[in-house]
Amino acid sequence: MPSFNKQTRISPRKMVLLALMITLSMGLHAAESMMPLLFPMPGIKLGLANIVTVICLFIFYPRDVFIIVTLRVILVGFVAGSFLTPGFWISGSGAILSFLAMAAACRFPKYSAVGISLVGAVAHNIGQLAMVSVLMGNQAVFYYLPWLLVWAVPMGLLTGFSAKAAIKALRKTGLDGTMGMY
Q: Among 20, 86, 100, 107, which residue's CB has the most CB atoms within a 10 Å radius?
């Protein structure tokens, strides 16, 4: 069991839950990637893996959620054969910026899972376009941002309401809030 001192020891229960959340987010990502293109423009996706991120922000500490998000991006990169490709960096930048924005939104008690998901959807698009801009050496890609944001709202609502329903179900099991500070 990895531990550096008594403060960073991870209980077996928590380690299993973290592994399950990574696996669930990878499974949702894989399911979404197998869906036919549902939207008229490139870059628009449902963001199903984000449901797990939102749920985890209500269960675990932010540093634990960061590990879940980072490992999901890396492991999906390995499994999909896209590790260290431009798509990997674009996906990773969106996921990390989305996580940071959602973790910051969690500090405000008035944000629900739906609000946090909306913040994440917008941040994900901004993070991805920022990385595309860096990779291409051109800021013109930001002209695409308004179109992405139009779609970010319904996608953020969809994932947010899904996460909200899952969190409600988790509260009945007693799992909600047992591993983190929220």
A: 100
Query: How much is the pTM?
Result: 0.81
124-147, pLDDT tens digit by residue?
Answer: 989 988 998 998 888 888 887 888
Instruction: State how far the alpha carbon of 156 is from the alpha carbons of 71, 102, 118, 146, 148, in Å.
Output: 22, 12, 4, 15, 12
Is 139 a domain residue?
yes
User: Which structural domain, as residue segments, surrounds residue 94?
Assistant: 12-173
CB 96 within 8 A of CB 53: no
Report the domain count for the chain: 1
CATH number at residue 23: 1.10.1760.20
Q: What's the DSSP call for residue 176?
A: T
Residues 6+ apart with CB under 8 A from 53: 25, 65, 68, 69, 98, 99, 102, 120
In a domain, 182, yes or no: no
Tell me if 53 sits within 8 A of 3, measured CB to CB. Answer: no
Dist. CA 125–CA 91, nearest whole Å: 10
Residue 38, in any domain of the structure? yes
